[in-house]
């Protein structure tokens, strides 16, 4: 991290977990544990939990995000939720392009870009996910692939809109598997993302960009990962469902 240049942000991705009642209980448990955080704290919860999360987090330093949004404002898209709907609820953040969306639900680099633009146009802050599969890492194309995903995701994004973007590097092979990129590997690829943004928007914009690591960051490895110059926070899966573990990660990012 380099807090003199950019914000550190720890964002929890609850995935498909927790009922509204459980959401209220977990956020109430978290609030006193993270209230003194010297970093951004975001919880991205399932759509059905957003109302409960917003109410539970009201008045605290915890910001609430969704896990996806559609690129159209309305229409015949059964099961989808639009950016204007999220904005109307008071949601501040949205995750776009998570590897599970890409792997299981047909998200492509192009639809990630369209969803990102829609979210930005509606005043949401976007956590854009990029990352490679194990086979691609073994083929030695991680840098090229992540740079390409970053470029496509940001296509049409203005320099002003870039201020509302966080990019999360999440190696697919390290998500929910217990495997973690080494701190050096994580730092290296986050550096590639920053370098790519620098080519598109200039060095100052790249230095100000928050780049998270999102592959099985937990209470035990957070400090080592966050010590990397280009790792400015984490997109936390399983550990964000445990108040104590999540607070340890937030404390590591607050140093």
Structure description:
The radius of gyration is 17 Å and the shape is globular. Helix 1 (20-34) packs parallel to helix 12 (243-253) and helix 7 (142-153) crosses helix 9 (183-201). The protein has helices spanning 20-34, 50-57, 83-89, 99-104, 109-121, 134-138, 142-153, 159-162, 183-201, 203-208, 222-226, 243-253; strands at 9-13, 40-44, 62-66, 93-96, 125-130, 165-169, 210-213, 233-236. The chain has an eight-stranded parallel beta sheet. The longest helix is centred in the C-terminal third of the chain and has 19 residues, at 183-201. Helix 2 (50-57) links the parallel strand 2 and strand 3. It has a single domain (9-253), classed as TIM Barrel, CATH 3.20.20. The protein has 255 residues and is of the alpha/beta class. 44% of the residues lie in helices and 15% in strands. It has twelve helices and eight strands.
The class by helix and strand makeup works out as alpha/beta
Order of helices and strands: EHEHEHEHHEHHHEHHEHEH
Strand content: 5-15%
Kindly report the CATH topology. Answer: TIM Barrel
Percent of residues in helices comes to 40-55%
Tally of separate helices = 12
Mean pLDDT: 96
**Fourth CATH level, the homologous superfamily:** Aldolase class I
Which residues form runs of ≥5 with pLDDT under 50?
Answer: none
Précis, in short:
The protein has twelve helices and eight strands. The protein has helices spanning 20-34, 50-57, 83-89, 99-104, 109-121, 134-138, 142-153, 159-162, 183-201, 203-208, 222-226, 243-253; strands at 9-13, 40-44, 62-66, 93-96, 125-130, 165-169, 210-213, 233-236.
